Fold these 4 entries.
Entry 1:
Amino acid sequence: MKIDILTIFPEMFDGFLNTSIIKRAIEKKLVEINIVNFRDFTLDPHGKVDDTPYGGGRGMVLMVQPIYDAVMSLKKDNTKVILLTPDGEPYNQKKAYELKKYEHLIIICGHYEGFDDRIRSITDMEISIGDYVLTGGEIPAMAITDSITRLIPGVIMEESHINDSFNIETNLLDYPTYTKPREFKGMTVPDVLLNGNHKEIDEYRRNMQIEKTKERRPDLLS
Ligand code: ADE
């Protein structure tokens, strides 16, 4: 899978691409992630990518031309173009599974007060990572890229997906986990996890998932 991320702040991705699981997935060629600075595509002689809004108002608006040309230079027949905006469809694990199926994604990070609405003419979907407003699409782009990459076979142990919160079949939250020591400041590990009986352990974990989901996210059980 290939993901092109269009941004004017490529340096924000340095840590993301060079750390832990994402770094290893790139090295193993399980995913290709390209950071594309759409400022490189502007026809403005001073390198401008934004301007004041028609009709007046605060702030600067990203211009359509640099983003349009950047997308057109990267887009193939099998590409899905995603625009990141608080106005978009709410992102969730189901959407991560859906996006994982595409061979090529172009993710556009908005910035400033917004973007010229004509950018919407070249996008296939709009995504929001939650009902709050960030200064730009870079953090949402990392969140989405991370959530897709970890679903690609070989990136993490397959077993991890089975127990993920929001697992696509169960839609339950994850069960609690523990590691050494057995006791810490009077807090102990549940006995059932120490008895080696895997049937009992599976049953306990499943019950914990159901209880936790009922308590915290009853909306997921409907
Ligand atoms: N850009 C700014 N806020 C955002 C959000 N919540 N989701 C996606 N893109 C955004």
Note: The chain has a mean pLDDT of 96.
Entry 2:
Amino acid sequence: MPDRSDLVIRGGRVVDATGERQADVLVRDGVVAEVGEHSSVGRPDGARVLDAGGCIVAPGLVDLHAHLREPGDEEAETIETGARAAALGGFTAVVAMPNTEPPLDDAAVVASVLGAGRATACEVVSAGCITKGRGGEELAPMGELHALGVRIFTDDGACVTAGGVMRRALEYAHSLPGAVVAQHAEDPSLAAGGHMHEGSWSSRLGIPGRPAAAESAIVGRDILLAELTGTRVHFLHLSTADAVELVRDAKRRGAPVTAEAAPHHFTLTDAECRGFDPVFKVHPPLPTETDVAAIKAGLADGTIDAIATDHAPHVPEAKERPFEEAPPGMLGLETALALTLSELVEPGALSLRDALARLSWQPAAIAGLDAHGGPISEGRPANLCVIDPSVRWEVDPIRLASRSRNTPYAGRKLTGRVRHTVLGGEPVVVDGTAQR
Ligand code: DOR
């Protein structure tokens, strides 16, 4: 008797790190059992069929950077709602950022996040703080957190400003297999009091700015510290041309660094702030057109390894405050893939496979998530997403699964959408509808 959980993903184009081919995918007991021609895969008795005609069958996407707000700000998002939004966006794994309340600098809090993420629509991986309370002074118990499975250490939302503290964190992380120290590169003494990118738009609007040098000063320093200690540094949400150039140069020298960019940094500019709408407020801030072009070029030539959402839900009351008082951050999980397809792949800046590399197997490798990112072959865990690359849709904040509504893309027409997501062999999104 065939297993009741048999699943056939029928008629799609399978795209993974090894290549692409027209094939059906048979999933059994949570793993890929067969990839082949329609006739060889067939339809075992009782198998459920997911139609993938005209679609791309890809390894599930992996987000290195999502704020799921639990514990502490469950009005904005919970692990359950964030994981659902992630699955609808094609993600099978997300790294939950530790700027929660209390922060994820303690084994018990990390264990509770991992517990809450267990039965959700997406694998939730906890990041851990670099320093206690994200205060930038005393190291968090990185070894204890690592023992629980934490691989990404970051104080995101805050920069580890003191070079000596960053050096100690890197030296300590060196002894923890697979550990990555991820930096929010914005020197607070340069960014202090700024609410948008410092440039001609900030002058015109009279909004105090954050200079690009706030980012590049830290990126430059941390490249040197990565080389000094031999420990990998990952740069979160790279947003400026200077920082991209520093990382490009560092990689040329073989420095152990990786970087990510968020969709809003390759699709929006500081000009969006002209209406004083805090939905466009984010840290690091929306940059200039030159920076956007540099981020795209960095994604195209591999300087930037990953596209990460920096999904940052905020309740409406918070985002209704005046620009200078509103918190920074914007939603990202449900629009990242479509923005990548519409703004990078469709115009020819990135091939489809390179786009999937930045969204799936490269971030999976950075986070050490071996069960995600493919390849789609026999015996591999069935963490997959099925993408309809041609469907046109309009972003409607009301229809998002996130608990919050702060998307800067309301009304924007995008091409490409997730049709199905499969997590550990279970369909968690079917025909665009969440099943968990
Ligand atoms: O805009 C941001 N919002 N940048 C961050 O680094 C933190 C995030 C948040 O938590 O809201």
Note: The chain has a mean pLDDT of 97.
Entry 3:
Amino acid sequence: MGIVDTLGRPVRDIRISVTDRCNFRCVYCMPKEVFGRDYRFLPRRELLSFEEIERVARAFVGHGVRKLRITGGEPLVRRDLELLVARLAALGDLDLTLTTNGALLAAKAKALADAGLTRVTVSLDSLDDEVFRQMNDVDFPVARVLGAIDAASEAGLPVKVNVVVKRGVNEGSVLDMARRFRGTGHAVRFIEFMDVGATNGWRLDDVVPAAEIVRTIGAEFPLEPVEPAYRGEVAERYRYLDGQGEIGVIASVTQPFCGDCTRARLSADGKLYTCLFAVRGHDLRALLRSGADDDELGAAVGAVWERRSDRYSELRTEETAALRKVEMSYIGG
Ligand code: SAM
């Protein structure tokens, strides 16, 4: 039995951001007006090296973590990412996954699979090319993301597809996505638009409640709920009654799941966050670079977790949404 926090929650899952840079400018995540030419991204020396990331990951595995997700920013813009995957895969029998926008995935899928990645999540917000280009705001076509999903699948990686749903922007794509991926083996997960960071102009009116998404899809393709596979599973899952697979919804706004949250997050510059909506992190890079050994690192990480009391989503109001929270591109989605 590993450690638990002040609310009795174990640590099972760590999300590792390997870069704060991205080749997309999704309007709800890294809007161009903020993340433009003058934006100061982290300089290279401030990023954790692969060796440093591996040490932090090992410390978490020692405390009971069984699931590692590499994210960003766009993780595939970090050079030689498969070398990090190989290091993390060697830490044990873990669920080792990656969240990506897919732009660079087709070329990398085989190397990532060979390095020991167990599966991949590809973000794709619409099948309508015009809507998708507007949302990614770099004119990136849907067809290339669909090609990347096929390439990942051919490389032997199970694929999930993430769709962030924003009222008035892509809610019309929900049914298209369900239709397109039914029967392919790729589960689609619909995510409520969240008030992460402080730059995406979040308003409660922009959120399409998960219950509405399930109703929309269920009206065309009847669904039934699936029992959670484990404590802390983020997506609420539903299966198609005709056996064509399943969908998930992530209802962080309308049905917060803080009580079961077993996730830690490591930013690209080595800060440890115990909530996606945190304002401050704990500086592990300073510890790593001051010569701490693995026992000291493990103890520091454990102490942070044992003090954890975050439950932001359960306390969310229009006022908390305006707090200066860290950006998702920095902390990792
Ligand atoms: N670049 C990678 C990608 O596109 O998947 C990984 C990082 S991205 C921050 C991770 C996920 O967070 C994506 O699926 C993205 O759509 C989602 N995301 C970003 N901002 C969000 C928000 N405000 N609400 C809900 N999901 C969001």
Note: The longest helix spans residues 294-307.
Entry 4:
Amino acid sequence: MNQPDTPDAVPAVARSRPIVVAANRLPVMRTDDGWSPSPGGLVRALLPMLRATGGTWVGWSGNPDDAPEPFELDGVDLHPVPISASEVELYYEGFSNDGLWPLYHDALRESTYDSDQWEAYVAVNERFAQALADIAPTDAIVWIHDYQLQLVPKMLREQRCDLTIGFFLHIPFPPYELFARLPWRTEIVEGLLGCDLVGFQRPMGATNFIASAQQLLEVDADDHVVHNADHDTHVGVFPISIDVGDVEATAAGRATRQRMSQIRARLGDPEVILLGVDRLDYTKGIGLRLRAFAALLESGELDPERHVLVQVATPTREAVEHYQDERHEIERLVGAINGRYSRIGLPVIHYLYQTLPFDELIALYRAGDVMLVTPFRDGMNLVAKEYAAAHIDGDGVLVLSEFAGAADELTDAVLVNPHDDRALQEAIVTAVEMHRHERRGRMAGLRDQIRKSDVKGWADRFLAELEATDDPDDPGDTGGAADPTVTALDGS
Ligand code: ADQ
């Protein structure tokens, strides 16, 4: 947590009104010495702002049946919400991660919508809403995060109409044709319409949400405001980003440069290091990427003596069966490809099923000549942005799925439809063979783009637009005219 913590680093809105953040998880982890901030850009962006305003974060500790008393860390009040072991199974692993996650990423399998899971989802959302209603100061701004808490806005508004409520969805919002499969689709949309502002990563998410609201509730809406009976819900597009300065500073450090050289040497100094870094999630397209790599080795377009793939996969949601299946499939593929193409002491794929320290990740990004980011569907994908930020040498090629939110901004990547085997293979070959001049030109474009949008700017813009939805002369905010400050759906 080496973020600047000066008032200048804090959004204007945060200086005038108290802010309460709610997310499934608290921004801290238990360590041997107590609690310490969790890694990740979102935490790094929001904690300094909360610290400067004496703000509060409401969330689960991450341990079932663990209900620590509220505590303070570095000037931020942390308010734990307990979740029982059976709720972890039903609300978190079940409804959120086995029901909503595949539906929202159009990774549909047989429907598994289960009313016990739904009831647990409602109960946990009620607990979060109650905690927020109890602790939010009068007229506070409440910012709720992500798909686990979509019912909270309506539940909270019913108790506390003085609050200004915002919600940001970190994952895609599906088209109505898919969303309509969910038995509780109306309740979810009503939940989100409890907000003053709902934010999405991509214009399509916002469009899909408004279309679902119109279909299910016959509400009156234009392209960025839904007019409810007693208030308006503004809808905007806020592509999330990373802490660019932090990644660049780490990438520039001597230790990182040394580690990068060591990594290259340990890999046998190959001509090209291809790299994949993902949570081990079936939406990330790791299997497709491995198959494309194998096909290129088989055809001779890649050569195991010159081209090496490093795939880092973070353990995630290990109790969910689909994740266990995905892990087995990836490990089977890695074994099969290595068995066929490796040489003694020189595997062609280096596979790590591990969470790496931030510095190690940045050294790997720097060592990677070609970064493969090939999700079937992804809200944004921060790995793509981190890779470009880490390449302070101005070199390196990003192969990026069109289905990642990052593709809207990172147009200098080699964009690809990962569902198309041959196109994915061609994109990899294009990246591997790209002339240095073109590589540098594209990387300069990527780096210019990410420098324009830092995660702090993202939080600042969301909060400013949330506050702008609040008209003090009109407490009911009933069906007012469209607010021109709210982002249009073209993402501009
Ligand atoms: P995720 O699905 O988790 O996030 P992503 O945006 O790529 O996906 O973020 C992953 C983060 O984990 C990155 O910051 C990366 O550095 C880190 N990470 C990955 N592998 C790691 C490893 N082995 N060791 C250590 N760290 C690792 C969800 C949505 C995304 C959206 C984000 C933010 O699914 O689409 O971009 O939220 O809104």
Note: Residues 1-8, 473-492 have pLDDT under 50 and may be disordered.
